[in-house]
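Lab notebook, bench 4. The sequencing result for the construct came back, and we need a structural model before the next group meeting so we can plan mutations. Quick request posted to the team channel:

Model the 3D structure of this chain.
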Amino acid sequence: MAAGNNAALTNDGGLGSMSQMGNKLLLVAGAAAVIAVMAVFWLWSQQPDYRVLFSNFTDKDGGAIVAALEKMNVPYKFSDSGTAILVPAAQVHQARLKLAADGLPKGGNIGFEILENQKFGVSQFVEQVNFQRALEGELERSIQSIGAVEVARIHLAIPKASVFVRDQQKPTASVLLNLRAGRSLDAQQVGAVVHLVASSVPDLPAANVTVVDQNGNLLSDTSKKMGANNLDPTQIKYIDDIQQSIIKRVESIISPIVGAKNVRAEASAEIDFSSVEQAAETYKPNQKPDDVTIRSLQSNESKTSNGGAATGVPGALSNQPPAAATAPITTPPVAAATPGTPGTTPVVVDTTPVNSQKNMTTNYEVDKTVRYVQQAMGGIKRLNVAVVVNNMPVVDKAGKTTYRPLTAAEKTQINDLAQQAMGFNKERGDSLTVVNSSFAGEPVEIIPVVPLWKSAEIIEYGKDALRFLVGIVVLLLIYKRALSPMLKKLMTPAPKLLSAPAEGNDAVVSLSGEQPKAIAGTGYDQSLEAAKQLAKDNPRMVASVVANWTNGNE
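Done. Here's the predicted structure in token form:
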């Protein structure tokens, strides 16, 4: 009977060993699964922050970028809208540099690289079309480099060349600009785009280039000039620049006296944009004898003698003898020769009447002035400047700042400085007004205090910390509830099966495989307590032993 029991126990021991091996394998598999779950959760809690690598790309560029990222082993994902590629924040700049080295993204514009893939035997028409596409693509790339332009589209209409002059046509170009949000192009920038396109295409005049924005607004209108009732944006900008320049000069010259925040100035300029050309020809009389210039002088003198014959106009008046002369004779009379006086010669006086006539004509130059005046547009017709000065700050000995009104001398000094700074011209009708008044205090903007837990940065940090803490707590729970018991069971040695007691001996059965110790008079009570404690600590093993006993008794 004892031998049979021993055999049964030995057979059951083999089965128990196999059961223990299966349990160990299950424990190892469970531990491995728990460790895998912990690793996955840890990686999830440490997920990197993704940032935008490229956005608003074409499908072709998107495929090339994704292929390059996969080749570089860079993780990526798409945004919710599908218009951006996201990569970890730590690899954004490195990925951009590597992709730029590969020429990505290309922007969807085909440039002259299309000519590098020309097939053999293409027609001249296809070559011309490819060249035009390449030229359009290169121009689009150049215009997109402007800061305010996001996307540019260019269409060139290049007519076929003709040998006849009358059949020749000039090329035309259409430019569609998609501007960035909140950006615009002024007239100078639009003109730069027009001249850029016109200079890149042979025989393309600037007047044949049309520029339109994404809203359908015509930006280049070179076909007509500004009418009399229209405002020229360049003129408005010119007026504003002059006014701002005057304001800046006035405030900068007064600020050192009263303080930077204690002076305000405004200017209004009237600008004359009319272009005047004037020609004047003036004639004036000769006022000064010294300035008289003889242009021509003509003199005519004639004398006639009638030899005692009657001359003159027939009539009674002409036959009467002339009256005695009234003018004094300047020539002294010649003394008559006295007969018998030696050395004298008798003088015979000719008393024959003589007619003389003398004419003189003098032509003087006329004073003449010819003046041509051309007045350039943009001249200042009038300036109106208003200046407000705050009361003068005064700091007492205690360090307290008070304000006092300006004195008359200070007002005069500020007024003179402002006139010099603005270029005051009384003859032009300029006006300057300087007012001293106390400035109203600026209202203090009360910014509501945002609680610390509502701050965006704190919320972001809190999310990261919460994710980290949740990961740690979950890992600890998995370790305590699943991994630690499994490891403890794996580290615990397998219990030995019960051995049959010898016949006739009062031996105590050991459930733990240890050698039984001698039990004193109360050995039964102690064995019973040990069995109870063993059943409480390892009920599965006790149940297995009892099952073996039952099977053995059968």
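The longest helix spans residues 2-45.
Will bring this to the meeting.
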